[in-house]
Amino acid sequence: MNSETDQPPADDDRRGYFRIDDVVKLAYHRIPAEELTERLERLEEGFSSNFTLMSSFSSISQQMALQLHRIESNSPDVAACIKALDQKINILGQAFLAQEEELADQPAQAVNISAGGIALNSAEEIEVGAIVEIKLLLLPSLTGILIYGEVIGCDKNEEPDSDDYPYQLRINFSHMRESDRDVLIRHILRRQGEWLRKRREENEENENQDE
Fold it and tell me: What is the value of pTM for the model shown?
């Protein structure tokens, strides 16, 4: 099997990832450890589900970005056509995602996430060491990423109004396509940039009010 999905990041690399508070849609469930190898092979071969189409499209678009910039400089009309085709493909990918029943009725929820793991509120208790399959839908791009992880913590939720989610789960991402990790990192950096920009604008607004 290609090693692209079968090696978790080293602890030093995991700690080096940016962590952000975000709002996503997700679904997860335990899987038997003996099924993991087969599932990873299917993920690597692209047979997992329609759910990962958008992340694959996003990765390809990123690879094309430099070439598209060059085309745009020399042939803007051709570049515009390529962008329109890319948009059509994205719409098609979103249509496939709309058929994902497991996430259709899931509300968006607050999480703390990095490219190495996720912390979230949970309605159920899951034992430490359990292997889980996570379908993670990034917003607002509607990009789906399929991830396998290991539960490293499950604690009572001390937050107010936590009756519906009495537990807090901490999950390390142990297996993910490298292309999907790149998509997730770009999403996190974009979210962080939005947060910094909003904070700067609020500070400037406060300074103007103080003058």
Answer: 0.74
